[in-house]
């Protein structure tokens, strides 16, 4: 079950939103009395309530907004119990001052906003002693291991327990609550009304992650990176899983660099079957592979990892996707060893994607030049791959047939910039922009205007995601859905 937290300064808004949520199917709503601006009129909020509630009045030290006296707060919580609300949230340290009465269930809570306590088990045991129906711990995740410990706590608890790791690192504890036996989890009313760090909104929980249908059989995948909050991979992969009716979910795993080792150690405990590997882990990820496809080893980085038995299999689907797009656009012969001999390519950028593409093109016999805004990086890439490095300012000089932008220039919100001048383009050039948000970057617009053939970042994104889908599920990806989903999500005009 999902409990939607409602915090509003005015009674009227709180009542209206509560009604709306229940109409939309919300099963439980938390009324955060500490958000109410004036004197709280509890009767007004609960007498005609449209559905079950948790009544909470959070102190400031626990992340709430309550400014009035503790005496008044206690009175409110007692009144809520006397009025027979379904649940009341009582902080563990004051629980003994608020006696049980009637049918109201007691959620005994503990909050910590800087870290996750070391000994969660002892803490939960002490909280259970406070005549708890539900024990709830919400603490800040600072490492991925905090999530693992929190989920273990909930899974092994004898008492119904809610364990939430707050912050972006902790998001998965919110999504996997039901799977480990949590009586409910918390979500926010809408994306702009987060009541706690890392809270997902109700729509994301129900539509994107299909929270209620997650069970012990659900196969888990995800993206491991830092940051991951704005990544489109969960949207695209979960939509594909849904379309194919797969009991699988794709989650955001925010893992800082120094925590990757712990993450890799935990994947089997968490029953994760595969991940998309994003920055900053693409190169380090390769070291955790027991086997990697030869292209991934050659490139020196992976973007996909599949956990199979004891093996960690590494792949680079960015490379595969980019090569497919180029082969198709240039109509390269398939059965030739060096189909790109004589093709002059300029790659802008020296990051993971530039490296993957440069490696692929060199293997196909292309003549590759690289330019990036940091000459040291350009030189390292060029010497590793065996291509030419030039200064960024010289990028318009080489005579080229194929231009590839693997820098983020032109990416939202940097819409008015192009990494390459229109004046240097001719109609014989093929222009490939790896930026997919927006699809029509300024570079792509210039290229269109000059009559160039183009490959967009969406073309590449869809293909790399489709390869991942196949590796993860063994099924062919619903290409049209992948394309529509990413186009829709990145379009300046929302289609629905
Ligand atoms: O204790 C909790 C959990 C919470 O802090 C969260 O992290 O979702 C949100 C609060 O409103 C609720 O009372």
Q: For the record, what is the CATH homologous superfamily label of the largest domain?
A: Aldolase class I
Q: Please name the CATH architecture of the largest domain.
A: Alpha-Beta Barrel
The average pLDDT value, as a whole number, equals 95
N-end to C-end Cα span: 27 Å
Rg result? 26 Å
- Largest sheet, spatial ordering of strands: 7-6-5-4-3-2-1-8
Strand-residue proportion: 15-25%
What are the low-pLDDT stretches, counting only 5+ consecutive residues below 50? none
What is the number of strand segments?
A: 20
Structural class: alpha/beta
CATH class annotation of the largest domain: Alpha Beta
**What name does CATH use for the topology of the largest domain?**
TIM Barrel
Shape: elongated
Helicity range: 25-40%
Whole-number total of structural domains:
3
The largest sheet is: 8 strands, parallel
Ligands? 1,3,4-trihydroxy-5-OXO-cyclohexanecarboxylic acid
Q: How many helical stretches?
A: 17
Question: Could you give a quick summary of the protein structure above?
Answer:
By secondary structure, the chain is α/β, with parallel strands linked by helices. The protein contains 17 helices and 20 strands.
Q: What would you note in describing this structure?
A:
The chain has 496 residues and is of the alpha/beta class. The chain has helices spanning 11-23, 42-46, 70-82, 120-128, 144-156, 171-175, 202-208, 233-243, 260-266, 282-287, 294-299, 317-329, 352-363, 375-385, 442-449, 457-473, 479-490; strands spanning 2-6, 28-32, 53-56, 87-91, 105-112, 134-140, 161-166, 185-188, 219-225, 248-254, 272-277, 291-292, 304-308, 311-315, 344-348, 367-371, 388-389, 402-405, 430-433, 453-455. 1,3,4-trihydroxy-5-OXO-cyclohexanecarboxylic acid binds at residues 5, 30, 32, 56, 89, 109, 136, 138, 164, 166, 186, 195-196, 199. 1,3,4-trihydroxy-5-OXO-cyclohexanecarboxylic acid is lined by residues 5, 30, 32, 56, 89, 109, 136, 138, 164, 166, 186, 195-196, 199.
